[in-house]
Amino acid sequence: MTGTLAIVGLGPGDEAMVTPQVRAALDAATDVIGYIPYVARVAPRPGLTLHPSDNRVERERAAHALDLAAQGRQVVVVSSGDPGVFAMAAAVFEVVEEGAPRWADVPVSVLPGITAMLAAAARAGAPLGHDFCAINLSDNLKPWAVIERRLRLAAEADFAMAFYNPRSRARPEGFARALAVLRECCGPARLVLFARAVSTPEEHLRIVTLAQAQPDMADMRTVVIVGSSQTRMIHRATGPVLYTPRSLDGAAA
Ligand code: SAH
Questions:
Q1: Is 198 in the pocket of ligand 1 (CB under 6 A)?
Q2: Side-chain-side CA neighbours of residue 177 (13 Å)
C-alpha cells in the first residue's frame, strides 16, 4: 500500500468548524501526529495510532510523519486553525526541501482549516472587511527588530492587523513593546479586539481602544486584531459589532 501524508487544520476548536474534507482524512488515517493538545482533539479508535509530541519539535515531528508515510502508512499531521498559518505545513516542506531521498515519492497534501483570525473576526463582525495582514508576534524564529519593522510598516500602510502568538510566559515583554509601537503609529483611539479561545467554551471577546489595551488582556490562546483607521464599532440590540467598511472614505488614502 502506498503511504500518504496529509497536513490538516482542525479549526479554532468547535467540532462543527472541522471541514468534511479534514474529517474524511482523519477517518482514513492510520497515524495522527501533532502537538499534544491538538492530537487530544482526535478520538481514539481501533487501527489508529496517536503520536502526541511536545511543542517546538516541529522538524522532528515532520520527519517522523514523512518516515511513517514512506513506510506505507496513512499519516495525518494536525494543526489548530489552518495548517499553513504559522503551523506545520511549512515545517513539513522545510524538511522535505532539505530532504532525504527516501521521502521523494511520498504524496503530501495540505487540507485547509478555519484560521483563528477568521473565526475571531466573524464573532466580532467584520474587522477584516478591507485590506489586512497577519503577523506572528513570537520572536522564537525571527528577531524582534523584524517584528517591529513590520508593525510600523503595516500601521503606516493602514492595514487592519491580526496578531498571532501575542504573548507567552517565555516572552512576557514583547507584546507590551508591540502595543507601545502601535500607540505611537496609530494613536490612542484605534480599536482593538482581543479574542480568546474562540469557538470553545472558554471563549471571551473584548473590544477596547489602543489607549485602554493592556498587555495582560492577551495570552497564548488569544488572537488580537487591531483595526485600520476606518474600523468602527456599531451598537446593536445584540451587542457591539466591529467592522471595517469595504471602501475608503478618502481620509486614509
Ligand atoms: N495554525 C493556527 C495558528 C497557530 S499559532 C491557526 O491557523 O489558527 C497559535 C496562535 O493562534 C495562538 O497563540 C493564538 O494567537 C491563535 N489561536 C489559535 N486558536 C485560537 C482560538 N481558538 N482563539 C483565539 N486565538 C487562537
A1: yes
A2: 15
The reply to whether ligand 1 has any atom less than 6 angstroms from the CB of 138 is: no
DSSP type of residue 45: -
Q: Which atom of ligand 1 is nearest to the CA of 200?
A: 22
Those residues whose C-beta lies under 8 Å from the C-beta of residue 200, and which sit 6 or more positions away, are 12, 13, 14
Maximum distance among all Cα pairs of the chain, rounded to whole angstroms = 61
Residue 253: what pLDDT? Answer: 46
32-36, 81-85, 97-101: least confidently modelled range: 97-101
Question: Please, is 209 exposed, middle or buried when counting C-beta atoms within 10 Å of its C-beta (0-12, 13-18, 19+)?
Answer: middle
Give tens-digit pLDDT for 119-151. 999 999 999 999 999 999 987 888 899 999 999
160 lines ligand 1 (CB under 6 A): no
SS3 (DSSP) at 21? helix
Q: Using the mean position of ligand 1's atoms as its centre, give its distance from the Cα of residue 80 in Å.
A: 7
For residue range 160-171, what is the model confidence (pLDDT) as tens digits?
999 999 987 777
**What is this structure's pTM?**
0.95
Residue 102: exposure state from Cβ atoms within 10 A (0-12, 13-18, ≥19)? exposed
